[in-house]
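Problem: given the chain below (187 residues), write out its structure.
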Amino acid sequence: MMRAPIRLALCATVALGLFAGLAAISSAQQRAYTPGPANIQLPPDWETRFIRYQTLDNEQRRIVRNIFINPESFMAARAGQPLPYGTLVLLADQRARAGADGALLRDANGRLIPEPAWLSVGAQQKERGWGEGYAANIRNGEWEYARFNGDGTRNNGPVEACFTCHLQNVANQDFTFTTWPYFQNRR
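Solution.
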């Protein structure tokens, strides 16, 4: 007889906990959007979960740039369509390996050989309503930008150059340099 009240109390406690959790999620979703890089979080599993769809050698900057996209957007993106909300594109840079003489080293295919560590990670994320609050001369649709250090910590450096460069050069490609063309040509 004593067990029924205990079970009832336990069920009530679990239900209240679930309700409080759902209320917290709902509250977070209803927060007002404030423009800025703090909207973007670097997922801790990005190195293993995200899809690297392009690698570019930049001899002038002496880096190898790896471009990743979250797998959900990779699967949902369609040629001729804007990229889906929730798209997170990451530009992860590595230093290009150099020889003792300072010359850049290359692999058998002529590509730069990257050092194993990340130098920096740039992020570009698209969410519904993002971009509101920016002046028309810099707004990139519903995209935001953020910078992270190679270890994944936030780099609070300016991101204004991201907006102006993407706006001037690739507004007709949903404000992406490589992602839009990749999905236009993907079969």
